[in-house]
Amino acid sequence: MKKLRTAVIGVGYMGRFHAEKLAASAAAELVAVADADAARAREIAAALGCAHEADYKTLLPRVDAVCVAVPTEHHHAVVRACLEAGVHVLVEKPLARTLAEADSLLELARAKGLVLQVGHLQRFNPAFQALVAEGGLPLFIDIERLAPFKERGTDVDVILDLMIHDLDLVLALARAPLEQVSASGFRVLTDAIDIANARIEFADGSIASVSASRVSQAPVRKLRVFRHDGYVSADLQGQKLRHVRRGRAGGSNAGVDVSEQGFERIDELRAQAEDFLRAVRDGAAPLVSGEHGRRVLALALQVGSLVEQRLARHAATR
User: Fold this and answer.
1) What global pTM score does this model have?
2) Rounded mean pLDDT of the chain?
3) Straight-line distance from the first to the last Cα atom of the chain, in angstroms, rounded to the nearest whole number
4) 146 close to 219: Cβ distance less than 8 angstroms
5) Where are the domains of the chain?
6) Closest Cα partner for 90 from 122, 63, 60, 65?
7) Helices 99-112 and 75-84, axial angle in degrees (round to 10)
8) Which of 47, 70, 242, 274 has the fewest CB atoms within 10 Å, i.e. the most exposed one?
9) What DSSP letter does each residue of 83-126 carry, written as one string?
10) Is the CATH number 3.30.1490.20 carried by domain 4-114?
11) Topology of the domain covering 123-267+301-311
12) Is 71 helix (H, G, I), strand (E, B) or coil?
């Protein structure tokens, strides 16, 4: 089968990893990498045995598909140029800065018949995929993502930087339309929101609580889903599930059954790249489509707006 000609635009921290996965794929040929930092593009290209460009537009006629990993503020312009050139796109989250930008990209991708995939990486975690496959009504979803402060990613607030990952997981687990959202958050070390919590209610009565911080002393990742008969705790880093269910009365665990389920560890970034290449090759929908990326972006922007409104009310009462 003929390999798809690919490139990566923006080879910073994440972009380099994307380039490595495409270079290693049997379904792709990494033709080139592009970065405004010409020296960095040259370094990555030398390591991976491909061409390099400072201007990404010069490589578009030579490729079938690209991964876009530039800063969020440039997503719309770069993705739009790629789609206009007839090139399929996998873009790092978030899809765009605004819903208007996202809608224009979706409309263009549909008109051109091109794949537009958004890089919500945790959807490829085997533990999370098993959790989704279990089905069942989630009564309460509790997600916490805390991380030490890093300069990388501070071009956006913690909601678009970290929380958006978990908002994506909540929407993937939900079984009903979104009904109500409330949120709070604060600025701590940057001029943007650094810590936030959102409470999301759905039409079937299920509720999700999502917390994110990028100013914590130690990293924390928690995901628990409570159902009628117990709950499941997901260790997404370890790619494991732990089920706690009602047991038989008088049993050795006082009526509670606990079981753990492990999965063969996979490289989620590689799985995402292969899903993108499959979608391009087969003309099929990717696991995380542009439409889903738009839905998650809408929720993230709503959370951000609610946080800012709450902060404005606080400021007005000082």
Assistant:
1) 0.91
2) 93
3) 66
4) yes
5) 4-114, 123-267+301-311
6) 65
7) 10
8) 47
9) HHTT-EEEEESSS-SSHHHHHHHHHHHHHHT--EEEE-GGGG-H
10) no
11) Dihydrodipicolinate Reductase; domain 2 (3.30.360)
12) coil
| Digit-coded pLDDT (tens) for 139-162 | 999 999 988 888 765 678 999 999
Tokens of 38: 């010409």
- pLDDT the model gives residue 249: 56
Cis peptide before 148 (omega within 30 of 0): no
The one-character DSSP state at 212 is E
Residue type present at position 76 = H
Mean pLDDT of 181-186: 96
Structure tokens at 242: 């732990």
Up-side HSE of residue 307: CA atoms within 13 Å toward CB? 25
Residue 121 CB contacts under 8 Å (≥ 6 apart), including other chains? 165, 268, 269, 272
Is the Cα dihedral 45, 51, 55, 59 positive or negative?
negative
Tell me the per-residue pLDDT of 191-234, one tens digit each, with 9 for 90 and over: 889 999 999 999 999 999 999 999 988 888 899 999 988 999 99
> What's at 2, amino acid-wise?
K
Distance CA 144, CA 114 (A): 35
| CA dist 294 → 7, 159, 163, 264, 300 (Å) | 24, 15, 15, 31, 10
